[in-house]
Amino acid sequence: MRRTVRRGRVLTAVLALAAGLLAGSPSAMAAQPVERAMSVAADPYTWKNARIDGGGFVPGIVFNRSEQNLAYARTDIGGAYRWQESSKTWTPLLDSIGWDDWGHTGVVSLASDSVDPDKVYAAVGTYTNSWDPKNGAVLRSADRGASWQKAGLPFKLGGNMPGRGMGERLAVDPHRNSVLYLGAPSGKGLWRSTDSGASWSQVTNFPNVGNYVQDPSDTSGYASDNQGIVWVTFDESTGTGTNATQTIYVGVADKENSVYRSTDAGATWSRLPGQPTGYLAHKGVLDAENGYLYLAYSDKGGPYDGSKGQLWRYATGSGTWTDISPVAEADTYYGFSGLTVDRQNPGTVMATAYSSWWPDTQIFRSTDSGGTWTKAWDYSSYPNRSNRYTMDVSSSPWLTWGANPSPPEQTPKLGWMTEALEIDPFDSDRMMYGTGATIYGTEDLGKWDNGGQFAIKPMVQGLEETAVNDLAAPPSGGAQLFSALGDVGGFRHTDLTKVPSMMFTSPNFTSTTSLDFAETNPGTVVRAGNLDSGPHIAFSTDNGANWFAGTDPAGVSGGGTVAAASDGSRFVWSPEGAGVHYATGFGSSWSASSGIPAGAIVESDRVDPRTFYGFKSGKFYVSSDGGATFTASSAGGLPSGDSVRFKALSGTKGDIWLAGGASDGAYGLWHSTDGGASFTKLSGVEQADTIGFGKAAVGASYQTLYTSAKIGGVRGIFRSTDQGSTWTRINDDAHQWGWTGAAITGDPRVFGRVYVSTNGRGVVYGDTAG
């Protein structure tokens, strides 16, 4: 509902913010490795998502032009999906992407082959700057995304970069389907494959690599990257049989030279004469039947910005340009991006005002090739609106955000960041469009034109696109799971198979960074998070069903980490922008903690309500007076950086497990049984990034351990039922989900159940197959 820049996901993945459930304790010996027998076995698990349905930006929807009901969706950080018509759900296609290639979960473009519908291509890579260390790739599949082969590229791609809603940058020749084109960012130009995506080479004679950057002053390279070449469109009427299509249009991020054309199958290129200037062409959609190229223009690259826009139509035969904007340029406060043609009735065109944040997005429709337009909503008498649609979000009720806005705003909103808009090429009544939080759709679009109201509802089930910062599974109460999420705050799941009715509210954090419950009083829950204005901490006394805001100490700028005393009597909070603080009761008054540095990760002992732990820059800290004072432990050999998660075990005071580190220093899993006075490093765990506990196995006296780790040379999700002496890998190569380093927890009530954080694929949970 709100405009939330998703840079938090950047930090989640790349800087590995310790937003997981963390914990620790007191002083003494250096951490010494202990020799334990490590075995890596396989245990069959079934994996599902804790249902949220959506939760992130969907910048692209692609229908196959030759096979009905074959459609794909791309997300900016959460992979790609294929539509399953029989169940009206989406199937994830990139869960096999592993830890080392986490950036390939960002999909900058998709292409579905209309000659051979079994073939699909995905251009992958999340950031073009240093945040993503690896180059991009083009993935190719001959079985609709069930399996993939990869062609590496000599440059990076940016599925979560500015301009990611433009496109599609990847296109298959509709006649000679061995030929594909890819528009690259960062000044890398136009690329072509002539062997069905197996290899790529630059089209060296393409004249323009683009020059538009969102913010040249951004020293991180994120907003200052050249957005490059942004779409490729074939004119299928200029090819026959298996001969290469002759006419190709290419969109470039250059406000003075935004559209280029080849009329000889890519041998030569020229700037399209007479074109509009001063804008970026977000989309170029061709109606070959009537000979029109439609272009949606915005003054910015999106997906958040854009304050002016136009729509244009180019007649491919005569070369005539016509301004078909549905609104005068002076009256726009948004750019245009979403653009689609009804392939059953090609004179019908639709477009979106993607960057109209207030009071709502707008969708425009023309049935005469852009001569006249109607709107999805209009003012009857300001501020009252008359809508051509109805909305039913009962399948994803949180899409109202719990809001009660004043007109002309409504809830749920029609959308925002609406850069993906597609009419089903086989069904004029079906349309889907992506927003910053879901995919909406309708199956009776024709009512738009006859005075009725067409029905919009979420068409997103199976597509899970949240970035997970923290997870907690309480031992009792109605909640099975609490999640701390980017962009949509987080949820209380009482049934993993059902979408919760609402995210956390009162207040609604834009992103929740940390949460905890009182171990022996799990009705008491605390969460901390980010909010543009307002408190950064909230409490619940009814197991997370209802919430109330706390107050902030001076200087707080972000959520940081928070810990609840085992009995819920007090809290320790390490927010961004201020030092560590403690409070008795529910945070109406905070006092500064001493002896612990600002920015420390904090956790509580799960038995002693006055014992809290902290970690910062290789040092472990312990408080035995409720967080008032901390003392640095003399334990050494711990990771020197802050990519660490730690937790204290329930039922035993001072039993702490710590995971984390980096490949250029100490990295692994450590255990303390004396409240952090000393730690022992598990020698068989090469790397570990998370640690969590679940119900003990039958016959075992110690809780089950879970970790996202590298053990026996293999990266995966591991389980141990014998205090880490042996480990079993419980995921497989088909279920890796990229980066899983933010949080993990077992279920204290169900043996074998584990909840895994992902950076864009939501909350994944696994159960033993038996």
From TrEMBL:
Residues 1-30 form the signal peptide. InterPro entries: TAT_signal, WD40/YVTN_repeat-like_dom_sf, Xyloglucanase_GH74. Keywords: Carbohydrate metabolism, Glycosidase, Hydrolase, Polysaccharide degradation, Signal. It comes from Streptomyces xiangluensis. Transmembrane segments: none annotated. Belongs to the glycosyl hydrolase 74 family. This is Xyloglucanase.
